[in-house]
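Blackboard transcription, Thursday session:
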Amino acid sequence: MSEEPVGGDLSRLRQLNASAVLRELRGDQPLTLTELSKRTGLSRASTEDVARDLLGRGWLAEVAPALGSVGRPARRYRFNAGAGRLLGVDIGGHKVLALVTDLDGEVLNQTRIAVDPEAGRRERLAVMDRCVTKALTGAGVEAGQIWSTGVATTGLVDGSGKVMLSDSLPEWSGVDLAAHVRRLVPGPVRVENDCKLAALAETWHGVARYAKDVVFLLAGLRTGAGLIIDGKLHRGFANWSGEIGALPAAGWLRAPEHLTAWLETTTRRDASTSVGFESVFIAARAGDQGALQAVRDYVRDLAVGTSALVLTLDPQLVVIGGGFSRSADVMVEPLRRELDRWCLRTPEIRVSAFADEGVALGAVRLALEEVESTITTGLRP
Amino acid sequence: MSEEPVGGDLSRLRQLNASAVLRELRGDQPLTLTELSKRTGLSRASTEDVARDLLGRGWLAEVAPALGSVGRPARRYRFNAGAGRLLGVDIGGHKVLALVTDLDGEVLNQTRIAVDPEAGRRERLAVMDRCVTKALTGAGVEAGQIWSTGVATTGLVDGSGKVMLSDSLPEWSGVDLAAHVRRLVPGPVRVENDCKLAALAETWHGVARYAKDVVFLLAGLRTGAGLIIDGKLHRGFANWSGEIGALPAAGWLRAPEHLTAWLETTTRRDASTSVGFESVFIAARAGDQGALQAVRDYVRDLAVGTSALVLTLDPQLVVIGGGFSRSADVMVEPLRRELDRWCLRTPEIRVSAFADEGVALGAVRLALEEVESTITTGLRP
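(Written on the board underneath:)
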């Protein structure tokens, strides 16, 4: 009788082992092989083996032995987030935002360039090129040093990195974003819908870190959703999940109109940016009755689609992100009341702690996913 | 450097190995160890080891060697579905249905006893007792021979097998079904919501066998949903998923009223059973304009909530089950047209091939899940 696995077995096992070691080392404390072996439940020999492989790939670094050890001090290891660089790009209606980070999402440079919402494909891509170049320069990083790139865009994206359909950006349906970005940075490029990536960012470094089932709401000029199910981003059969906003009965198409109406009749401020919209929330916060009513009407419509998501998935957590999340203080309580009205169980509601870099940070996480998937294939068989 | 995994490693690996061997043997063909090793990618030694364990537990059986083999013929193995017995019980509004099956869900006895929809808790439980006893007797099986039992009920169920909330059955909220059934059959008992189990049955032996993401619709006097996500039944944080029907905007609360209205004004037949409802579909099939309109109105409301589920999850497949699925021929095309209207991508629509035993068969699958979870813990470490 042999315990020795071979072939497909082994690589699956080694992937589990490598992931277990990396997971333990993602914390702040460097660990010895003995500690790693204890925490992961792996044998000493397997732990040593995995550590050697990960050191060779630069994922781990050795740390100076602890002071005051008696006898020959044991080597200690930490996750080497500095081993590589990742790029995350968020292409929105009003701006392009690029992040250059280390392997743990620590931002080395954040560059934002405004773009006209009416800009066509060529103009928007040109802004993206400038934004990426500026971010790389700002971080002091050559394009060739980027291990992997993630790109976020509004609209529906296919598996190859092409935008299938975008209602909100002019001339955007059909653009092959992955191919375009590959001309700028030579590493692998993955493209995904912005709401999905914002959800991913929340489970990585945001307020949803400890939740397995999460509904993320992008609340802004547009309303969108990203779903984390059983700890993973849910994409769906054709990657078109989270699009409940397209259903009129869900209320999301109509929701922002209440805010627009107040803006138009009252202040005549620019209602085409979420900053312009902010004046409704400011007035509501100051007690303006009309503004309060407009916010209540907005939340009432927002809550219908949100309740549909909650009743469908029974998530642990609803996270509010997007442009309006800055004004969440006047939205959360009315939203909770509406959810209480429709849902069998109202989940916890949290507000994103990101300013507006959540989507780009999710794009970085997507880039890291690509790198992590090479752990298995990179290890010796 | 050692390849030998220990501790937690090993049991996870052995579970993967045992599952892989069982998966290959669930087909019709008995297989030799050489064939099993090749198909699973496991080493010969690991395959032999797993097979020995599974034989010891009765999950595998040896088959007579193939005729005409030259030399000493190789032993062949098959999944031994006959090794154990499972019990599945469906407690509905109008009936209790019990199935006694083998480990593959092959039905040895199916017993149905009608129950008054207005029956209270005690009466309904008494009917269930009789139904289970009759099914066991019919199958020639002692209660002690049942390896595991699954129970399906309408309403929301908690993890311990208690009904948390049931709107449709009188005095049903709070009943501890698991405890009650344990008095009848000594093995482990698991309880789950009927829509969820019907979805499970479709992925096991029904029309959704090859799909990873499935929306199952229970279309009948009540409308409900069960969700298969990434190949697994999605339960949610408190096991309250799939309840979108509670949201008025989803249209499901109102949907059956169109059928009731036609029945009341036209035929005055009994509208309290789905058989009574069938006359609407019969009339629609015969071309009655009023009945056709009633079905169209029903489907229009059904489609709103269904579109919400489809837009949220982007499933590969929508399966229609429940009492009205017998009349699916007049429902599918109108439903497809409505989904085309609201959804970005209309998934394939299939009609359940089960008569009304789908829910009970899902309860059997739940019982099998319980048995399968012992594969790991039961194998020697």
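Lecturer's comment: Chain A touches chain B through 64 residues (CB under 8 Å).
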